[in-house]
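Table S2 (continued). Query chain:
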Amino acid sequence: PIDWLFLIKEIDGDIQQQLDERYGRDKSKKALDELRTLEAVVFAPVSAQLDKVDFSVSAEQLKTFFGIHLDDEFARLKNGDFDPTLSYILNDPNSQGLMRSLLTQFSIEFLIEGAPMGLYATGAFGTLQSHLLRIYQDEMGNGVPEDKHSHLYEKTMLDLGLSDTPDAYQDHFLTSNMLVSAYTYQICHDKSKFLRYLGAFFRNEACFIVWQKQLGESVREIYRGRV
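Corresponding output:
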């Protein structure tokens, strides 16, 4: 995406030349012209489904909805129910190879942790935007690179001999993962979808607590502390 700064960390040669090559005016204009057309086609089925949903709910109904999801997550955490995919990987003879594949798939999301939210960091929308910016600052490590949420994933990838560049494996991502990532980008750069982004963002934060914990446990068990 032309809204995000993606460059390798150790640049050989002229940095300005690389910036121009990737983000120059002609390339940016062409990308924007093609982007809107592609999004209209690719996300038509998603929009059609969401347009059928009744979003006219009260604040209390919304809190109850997410409260149920959070209660379910913490119940699973307490009961120790393990994710089927992670269980399969743990019990497979090729567990290390399968875990490398899984981590590569999720690198499309975890190596840019919080980046989409940055597209809502500018402007003036009062309390709601201010709270969102606080979360964004935490995602970015509050100015300390080692505290960025993505830093842990970068270290994991490097320990496995994999690249920590966000788009290094773009030819290997599943279509479903590409769709989710691209849709998140769309609802962030299209400011008319601000509320839709808040819903998607909170849903992710509320529904993957257990899975994230289990992923960490699985990586430690499979690689016996070497990662």
